[in-house]
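Note to self: user wants both folds in one dump. Writing first protein now.
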Amino acid sequence: MESDLALFRRRLLKNPRQVSAIAPSSRTLARAMTLGLGPQSGRVVEFGPGTGRFTEAILARGVPPQNLTLFELDEEFVTHLRAKFPGVTVHQAGAETAPEVMEPGVQVVISGLPLLSMPEPIRESIVGAAFKVLGPRGTYVQFTYGPRPPLPPEQIATLGLKVDRGFKVWANLPPARVYRFRRCA
């Protein structure tokens, strides 16, 4: 099996706009993104898992494979993920399709998608899809390389969300910040 790094580099060279990162996410960022997950976390969804760095961290936190569902567009990443993580459900589909195949009540959505590089309507569609599958107290976790949340304040308000600014992860290339979005009470 090809290494994660070799696969990442090959896919980056073939489709840089879709991969939209200069290096795979670090293990430190993966730990920050999955903070609070455990065996009792319920169902978890991951958007844009790529080679599976966050997937590894989710499973390492004790989330059972049958409680994890991934949405990935890239066919080669999908093949890699299915081989690497038996028991995990992997959909070759965009994140915005999650409500079409998932029952509501998911506890956490972890997103590795490059939201800031996407047009605003697509960002809103992806985050909206996350909140259609999340339970009432569910959390959407997103990182960004920029200094502000990956959604502008007016979009956060339109979606009826509040955002918690989380950890700045310096041990990532480039450094990233984790944000946690929840519904307003």
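First done. Writing the second protein, which came from a different request thread.
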Amino acid sequence: MSDDQCVFCEIVRGDVESSVVYDDADVLAFMDLRPVTPGHLLVVPKTHAAGLEDLDVEHGQKIWAVGQQLSRVLRRSGLRCDGINLFLADGEAAFQEVFHVHLHVFPRFAGDSFRIAADWRERARSELDGTAAVLRETLATLVT
């Protein structure tokens, strides 16, 4: 998908309407059109990056820093907020729907509707150690 076909790029350019909460040279944060809870925000880099692998480290750090700042804002806003989720889906299998990196920041409270269904059972140490070894080997090939 090119930048001119990306709805978040259109929002960044001002071609599509949004309710902006935060705006600087690198990052834009706006209200999610389909919020999980009132106050649900999206934090996006202003440069197009389809997924995390496409995002440079500086913009990634900035997205998370702004997300943290907006978490404090949500807690102090008077909106119902007993907790915060920071959620980033990277790839279709992770339920990414808009292929422009975006961090969801949304308030949580008892009885809200957001759920992640998973197999949360405890794993054997040998399984965890084997997975850790594979990841360490891969990490070693990526570090320069």
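Dump finished. Worth passing along: Strands lie at 20-23, 27-31, 41-45, 83-87, 103-108.
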